[in-house]
Structure formats: structure tokens, C-alpha cells
């Protein structure tokens, strides 16, 4: 029953939307997946904007947080209470990032099933008006070629067939690495855009014994870990998953960068300048 509900709400609509884009784009599955990624990002713009504004508000609390540390530094419990009050005042929710993450995971999960159904030439869940584009189930054959890749294959499958270091497999490995690289660059870029005034992080202060970690410190530690874990995880998945998902991931990352440029040009420009100052001028 749960599978039926999931398919009805998520998988089948995405399957049919993919087929519409595929048909309109001259039977090109790669472009159809790119359009799905772009559409997903466009739908998430209001949520992304709200999350970005909240992150910037949090960054603006630093002077008040420093004042609280001076005032209640000797009383960790009181300090934690006052910090929590301050966070509540601006409406901070530590789980706020899930608001944008969950829809993306839903689309990604549904897309995996969609690609599998398309490659198996299954008409299950295809709406009647779309079925008319195909005279019979035998004609329901999707063109899965896109640039250098077969979107149904992965580095693992091609490597097993031709050898892990064959020319055929290397192109799929490069695609998987591009997924992780784009994910990492986008993560760093996003952090700087959400707090464009920061260039070099302050020196980490030692926490006194028995003093609880502030929500700010907890969030900072979690962010640093995710900056590495998420890109590595996507590479690991992309190596084994169909290259269609890799194309989707890369498009998602590029669209996220484009969102910042389009929605908030002034702050984005300032963030890019600070990135240049930190990583390039500093090395000269």
C-alpha cells in the first residue's frame, strides 16, 4: 500500500514529466533529466531564499553572542540558556536545512525508479495520453545515449565489462568525480554566499571543561564534517549508480550557483570577491 501511495504521488508524476521532456527534446533523455533538475531548483527557490536569509541572520548575531560569552562565560548553563533565547528570537531552527534537503531526496529517490522503469521499457504508471506517443509496448524504447555516456550504465558496470582502467570506464569515472567536485565547490560557494562578509574564519577558542557546546559551535562542527562527507558520499554513490543520476546531481549543483547569481547579485558578487581574496590573493 505504501509503495502504491509513493508511486502515485511521486514516481508516476515524475515518470510522465520526464517522458514529456524527453518527447519535446527530440528523444534526448539527458536533456530531459537536466530540465527535471532545473525545474526542481526553481520550485525550491522560496525555501532556499528563506534558509539563506536565516543563515545571514545567524551570522549577524555574532556581536551579541560574543557579548553573552563575556557576561556569562563563568556560568555555562546560563550562557546556554541566553544563547537559546537569542536563537529563538530570530526564529532559528537547527533542522531548517532539512526543509530543502528532503524534497531533493524525494525527487532523487523517485528518479532512480523512473530511470529503472524507462530502461526496462515498462509502461506502468504512464498516463494514457502519453502512451499514445507509443503505438505499443514494443515501441516503448528509450534512447539512453547522452554525450559520452549511456545513462543506464555506471563506472562499476562498464568497468566490469571492459576493465576498470579501460577508456570506456574512465569516462564514467570522470563523471563520478565531477559529481563530487561540483558538490564540494557548490558547498563552499554556498557558505560564502550565505555569509559574504566572512573571509578568514576566526581562530577557534578552546572550550572550558564542563562547558556545553553552543548551538553555533555544534552547527559549525556539523558543517565542516558535511563539507567533506557529502561530496565523498556522492562520489561513492555515483560510481555504482546509473550515470543519469550523476547528470542530475551536477545540474543541481550548477543550478544552485545560478540561483545565487540571479536572486542576490550584490551579495553574491561580494562573496565571490571574498573567496578570491581568501584563496588567491592570500597565496601571492
Automatic annotation (TrEMBL):
It is a multi-pass membrane protein. GO terms for cellular component: plasma membrane. GO terms for biological process: protein insertion into membrane; protein transport. Keywords: Cell membrane, Chaperone, Membrane, Protein transport, Transmembrane, Transmembrane helix, Transport. GO terms for molecular function: membrane insertase activity. InterPro entries: YidC/ALB3/OXA1/COX18, YidC/Oxa/ALB_C, YidC_ALB_C. PANTHER family: CYTOCHROME C OXIDASE ASSEMBLY PROTEIN COX18, MITOCHONDRIAL, OXA1. Belongs to the OXA1/ALB3/YidC family. This is Membrane protein insertase, YidC/Oxa1 family.
Amino acid at each position: 500500500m505504501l509503495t502504491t501511495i509513493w508511486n502515485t504521488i511521486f514516481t508516476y508524476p515524475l515518470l510522465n514529466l520526464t517522458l514529456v521532456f524527453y518527447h519535446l527534446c527530440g528523444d534526448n533523455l539527458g536533456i530531459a533529466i537536466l530540465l527535471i533538475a532545473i525545474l526542481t531548483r526553481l520550485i525550491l527557490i522560496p525555501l532556499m531564499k528563506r534558509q539563506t536569509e536565516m543563515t545571514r541572520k545567524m551570522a549577524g548575531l555574532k556581536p551579541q553572542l560574543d557579548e553573552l560569552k563575556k557576561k556569562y562565560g563563568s556560568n555555562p548553563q546560563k550562557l546556554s540558556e541566553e544563547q537559546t533565547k537569542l536563537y529563538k528570537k530570530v526564529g532559528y531552527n537547527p533542522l531548517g536545512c532539512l526543509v530543502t534537503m528532503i524534497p531533493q531526496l524525494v525527487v532523487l529517490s523517485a528518479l532512480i525508479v523512473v530511470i529503472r522503469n524507462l530502461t526496462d521499457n515498462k509502461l506502468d504508471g504512464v498516463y494514457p495520453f502519453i502512451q499514445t506517443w507509443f503505438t505499443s509496448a514494443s515501441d516503448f524504447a528509450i534512447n539512453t545515449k547522452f554525450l559520452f555516456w549511456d545513462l543506464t550504465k555506471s563506472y562499476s558496470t562498464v568497468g566490469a565489462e571492459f576493465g576498470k582502467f579501460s577508456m570506456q570506464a574512465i569516462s564514467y569515472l570522470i563523471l563520478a568525480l565531477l559529481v563530487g567536485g561540483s558538490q564540494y565547490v557548490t558547498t563552499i560557494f554556498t557558505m560564502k554566499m550565505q555569509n559574504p562578509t566572512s573571509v578568514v574564519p576566526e581562530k577557534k577558542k578552546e572550550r572550558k571543561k564542563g562547558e556545553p557546546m553552543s548551538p553555533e559551535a555544534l552547527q559549525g562542527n556539523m558543517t565542516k564534517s558535511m563539507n567533506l562527507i557529502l561530496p565523498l558520499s556522492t562520489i561513492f554513490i555515483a560510481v555504482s549508480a546509473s550515470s543519469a543520476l550523476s547528470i542530475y546531481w551536477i545540474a543541481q549543483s550548477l543550478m544552485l550557483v545560478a540561483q545565487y547569481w540571479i536572486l542576490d547579485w550584490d551579495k553574491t558578487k561580494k562573496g565571490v570577491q571574498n573567496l578570491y581574496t581568501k584563496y588567491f590573493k592570500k597565496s601571492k
